[in-house]
Automatic annotation (TrEMBL):
Protein's UniProt name: Transglutaminase domain-containing protein
Keyword Cell membrane: no
Residue ranges occupied by any Transglutaminase-like domain in the UniProt entry: 280-352
Alphabetical UniProt keywords: Signal
A Pfam family matched in the record: Transglut_core
Species for this entry: Chryseolinea lacunae
Family matches, as SUPFAM superfamilies: Cysteine proteinases (SSF54001)
InterPro entries reported for this sequence: Papain-like_cys_pep_sf (IPR038765), Transglutaminase-like (IPR002931)
Span of the signal peptide: 1-19
Length: 644
């Protein structure tokens, strides 16, 4: 008996000692690999099961996470959230903290899970939700663990998997477990280094697709980065079809399948039309001379009269409201506004088409990923008699007719012609010359400051983005924007007065007139004055740290700025030095600066442009070379010398 107790005690001691050693080794290993990180995923795993049951496909995923905390400052990760929605139901949530105490772990379970509505500031209503909870005793050396199951209502919404996350990961695994009858498409993107390993095997009547990775670093947050799917290693997957006893069932085998599913959402809309909507269309027709005038009138009417409100609830996230309903309520989301435009143009006898499109947040193309992953937006399309396509996005209030919203530039649009026909068209990227900001100032020296008057004009996307800033209820907000827009010289710039015209006229440039002064801007040394006429030094020394930056840089739109400055030469001074003219015709950024002496004044003209939407890491060195040339030119000053 004594021997048995002693043997049991010995085994228990060995088990505790083994657990202690394992924890110590794990902590040391991960601390050495990720010394600067507050915590690390020991494991991050998800297994998606696609199981054929009778004639349908059941889809659910089991998620588990195990985080080891490496610093006392990791309390920021003491709160957790698990997200769900109408299409993705969450259940069986289990969470706990493993508290390291006297060479072993003690479990502290989470018992309080609160369900919350996940309201985004830009969405009036959606059906997404999350369960929130707090892990107890989160501190250095402890571990927090989470498990839950989510059930997907429709296999078309398989989300794929992003391998990188906000913490580094010791081991990452994503597994799809399917019935053999399922034809699955899969592709890993953004993994040039081959970090993700793949294997495929059969076991227990199922087919397994397994992607794993080890020691993945944390995803770094960097300014102006695009959506993570542009650069992070991630998996895109979807079910093409599956076999049942009744035959083959197509899911998303190709773009035809996706389009026919989408078309089913709009084919029965707008069967009847309200007298109010007919009256609106007739009035627009009466005021129009050409078909294009009708389209412009309808587009502007929807922009001016329908309030954009994002609304997502179940299939309402995919199916537009009837045009009569939207016209009556005077609000709607992107689908509602697009459908209203299509219906109004049809009433006017003009062909128009429902169009599905992804914003620039999504890097995919319909021709590559024919799934709901590819789009998140809807617009209308009009094709003129000359073959020109007009992409009508009324959610962008200040966008003029003929200009697509900036967030869909360069994206593929799925244009629905009829039940069996569609087109994929690429929305053009708008040339920099179309998005022009011009600024003209006359300045003179007054004591130790510069005083002047100026005029600015905004066109294209410069006007659109400016329109949102100028469309503010508070005058102080408008003044702050105008100060940012026309501010120049230094932080001693002061806006004395300003006026704004044409901000609500989409067809004409917004114009800003202003008066200003800049204190202590020029230098006086002996009998010489040094004045830098580069009052705006856009991107001065804006070098990219090539050694550190990992992600691309995104720009809202390409643009050009034209600046003109007239300096009145003081009567008792003359020109001693004019800088040489300078020019750089870069493919990403460029400028031209010209100086000219005229009786009693100096004229300075500068053109500056940015010519990219997405700046890739391979272009960073070329960018830096251009910025070096630009910054050197910015340093040049004119010299005025006192007359003898």
């Amino acid at each position: 008996m004594t021997r048995t107790i002693f043997a049991s005690f010995t085994i228990a001691v060995c088990v505790v000692a083994s657990a202690s050693a394992q924890n110590s080794d794990l902590y040391k290993s991960l601390k050495e690999k990720f010394p600067d990180d507050p915590a690390v995923f020991v494991t991050r795993e998800e297994t998606v099961t696609l199981q054929l049951k009778e004639d349908s496909l059941l889809v659910f995923s089991d998620v588990s996470e195990d985080i080891l905390h490496l610093k006392e400052q990791s309390e920021v990760y003491s709160s957790g959230r698990v997200y769900g929605s109408h299409f993705n139901q969450v259940k069986d949530i289990k969470a706990k903290t493993l508290v390291w105490d006297r060479s072993r772990y003690k479990e502290m379970n989470v018992s309080d899970f609160k369900k919350n509505s996940d309201r985004d500031a830009g969405v009036f209503y959606d059906d997404s939700y999350y369960y929130s909870f707090n892990y107890p005793s989160v501190s250095n050396g402890n571990r927090t663990q989470l498990q839950y199951r989510s059930t997907l209502k429709d296999v078309k919404f398989l989300p794929g998997f992003i391998f990188s996350t906000y913490l580094p990961q010791g081991k990452t695994a994503y597994v799809i477990k399917t019935s053999p009858q399922v034809d699955l498409f899969y592709e890993v993107l953004n993994d040039a280094a081959g970090l993700i390993k793949f294997r495929k095997y059969d076991k227990g009547g199922f087919r397994y697709y397994e992607w794993t990775a080890t020691n993945l670093p944390a995803r770094r947050s960097e300014d102006s980065s695009p959506s993570v799917r542009y650069y992070a290693p991630h998996l895109v997957t979807y079910v093409k079809s599956y076999e049942t006893k009744k035959g083959k069932v197509n899911v998303l085998g190709n773009l035809d399948d996706l389009y026919h599913w989408y078309y089913s959402f709009v084919k029965d809309l707008n069967a009847d039309t309200s007298p109010e909507l007919v009256a609106v269309v007739e009035k627009i027709k009466a005021q129009s001379k050409t078909e294009k005038d009708v389209v412009r009138g309808v587009f502007y009417w929807v922009q001016d009269n329908i309030q954009y409100i994002a609304f997502e609830e179940g299939m309402r996230g995919l199916i537009p409201h009837h045009a009569n309903y939207v016209c009556d309520k005077r609000y709607g989301d992107c689908k509602d506004m697009a459908n209203l435009i299509v219906n109004m143009l049809h009433l006017a006898g003009v062909k128009a088409y429902h169009t599905w499109i992804g914003t620039r947040d999504l890097p995919y193309k319909y021709t590559q990923v024919p799934t709901p992953l590819v789009d998140n937006h809807m617009i209308a399309t009009y094709v003129a008699a000359d073959g020109q396509y007009y992409f009508l996005d009324a959610t962008s209030d200040h966008t003029p007719f003929g200009l697509p919203s900036s967030m869909i530039q360069g994206k593929e649009a799925l244009v629905g012609i009829d039940k069996d026909h569609y087109e994929v068209k690429v929305v053009p990227e708008i040339a920099k010359e179309k998005n022009l900001t011009s600024d003209s100032v006359s300045i003179k020296l007054d004591g130790n400051q510069i005083v002047g008057t100026g005029k600015s004009a905004l066109q294209g996307y410069a006007k659109v983005f400016g329109g949102y800033e100028l469309d503010r209820a508070e005058k102080d907000d408008v003044r702050r924007y105008v100060t940012r827009l026309v501010g120049k010289g230094s932080n001693k710039f002061y806006l004395d007065d300003y006026s704004v015209t044409n901000q609500n006229d989409r067809e004409r440039p917004t114009r800003v007139g202003y008066k200003f002064r800049i204190g202590d801007y020029f230098q006086k040394i002996s009998d010489e004055l040094y004045i830098n006429l580069n009052l705006n030094k856009d991107y001065y020394n804006a070098f990219i740290n090539v050694a550190l930056r990992q992600t691309p840089k995104e720009n809202d739109y390409k643009y050009e700025k034209l600046e003109f400055c007239e300096l009145a030469i003081p009567a008792d001074y003359e020109v001693e030095y004019l800088p040489p003219n300078a020019k750089l015709d870069g493919d990403l950024v460029g400028f031209e600066a010209r100086y000219e002496k005229q009786p009693g004044k100096i004229l300075f003209t500068k053109t500056f442009y940015i010519n990219y939407l997405l700046l890739q890491p391979a272009q960073f060195e070329r960018w830096n070379e251009a910025i070096k040339t630009l910054s050197e030119a910015y340093k040049e000053s004119i010299i005025l010398k006192k007359k003898l």
